[in-house]
Amino acid sequence: MEIKRLFDILPFYEESFKPKDNALAGKVNGEWVTYDIKTYREFADNISYGLHQLGIKKSDKIATISNNRPEWNFIDMGIMQIGAVHVPVYPTISESDYKYILKHAEVKYVFVSGKELLRKIEHIIPEIDNIIDIYTIAKLDEHKHLSELVESGKKHMDNAVLGGLKAEVDPHDVASLIYTSGTTGNPKGVMLTHHNILSNVIASAPIFPVDESSRGLSYLPLCHVYERMVNYVLQLKGVSIYYAENMGTIVDNIQEVKPHIMTTVPRLLEKIYDKILAKGRKLTGLKKQLFFWAVNLGLRYEYDRPDRVFYNLRLSLANKLIFNKWRDALGGEMRSIVSGGAALQPRLARVYNAAKIPTVEGYGMTESSPVIAVNTFKKGKRKIGTVGPPLNNVQIKISEEGEILVKGPNVMKGYFKQPDLTKETVVDGWLHTGDVGIVDEDGMLKITGRVKEIFKTSMGKYVSPVLLENKIKESPFIDQIMVVGEHQKFAAALIVPDFEHMKSWCKIKGVEYTTNEEMIRNKEFRNRIKKELDCFNKQFGDTEQIKKFELIDHEWTIDSGEITANLKLKRRTILEKFKDLINKIYNIKD
Description:
With 590 residues, this protein is an alpha/beta fold.
């Protein structure tokens, strides 16, 4: 059958694949609860009937604030089947952002996963006139819950009515309104049509080496278009999708599910790698030597080099002796990890692929539904240090200023209620990404920075902080970093140390570890950080070298406000929050 709207994936799934009880799975009270495709479709249909009975019409906005779970899909499809617009909202944003989004989007009903998230918004709901009611997914005595809407839907089933409502949904109708987290100002509502997202789903699907016998693990927020689009790809290919409970349980969930595919952001891959190295450092004698021999071998990995006969023989031995344990840590059956959302350090791409944990990097943005370019698992269509070739239905060109411009069926319909901003962002059909990059001799796209993040020193030299940050984060001593120096004589950095590694280092050096706050002032430790920076500075141009730094005594998190919901630095927030430290670096007096 032809798939023209996102909800067409459901009948296609049921008609195309053998029945199985684990089309979707989520954990309830410590046990995996699974759903077959028939049950999935019934839930979606009943939600459609229930919403229609409530008076929801085409183009009305319905919001979800939820962690990843099968019910998210039931609601998503139920909303779209009647032509309404799904507004998925991050569970981790601020109260002011909740208020802005729910008002700006003119949301009529809100689905909230449970008590904790309900507590974050229930006191602001009376201030938002357009909201009619809230439904919770978990059963709470004091609120209406999803099962009530489903039961109402069952009482008002009418296949002819639902069929008519589906028929009225055009592929170019808005399917979802997604608010970008943004690093400054109010979030922007990106209007994505069924055709926008489906064009990305269909173009991306052949890249994933999975089929109906495969299992996928999902942990990135489904409210983010990256995870959501991949979620549709996996359904299109009949893959069973298991939703991780939370970030704290992901290692256990991987062992339970033994997934074949997973999407991620670089930060998780960095954390896993750092933990593996930390265990390696605790080894002694020959075991330790073999471990780091294998790691160093992995760091020299390159795709598609059968000519490196001696290297490949040694790598084969390293995989039998060392890397097999790495694969076991990721369930032992991983065929594909796709990283996006931020730059993946080349060393991580090398070592994971060397360890036969196939890992590729892609690039995109909400406004492009999201994928623009991605490395694949095929020879000639991948290169470490790049984000790969553009999708086969996407065009890329580089402006005179070096900005990446994109054209294709995946480019958004526009920003909701912001026509002027839409005209600035999409010019003659070309989406201005705000990213700077190049297309190399092999047709691979390489991101070199953000237009708005590249700054000029007082000496008139340009610095791209992202490139420096991504390189410096290779140090085991450095967890997070932001390079500063706009209108100053030199580049400097705010650094969050890797506190676990700091503790290990202190133990080896016989330094008593007290508190993070006290340790970042420890002269011996600061000298060690300086030594790390000196090594990296040798790889940078004179104007890019980090001349001074200050250490931060806590991790930057979503809750503490320094990073966005998709784990990008809120640069302006950090500049303001740590203004005194930056002034200290540059000896600026207020």
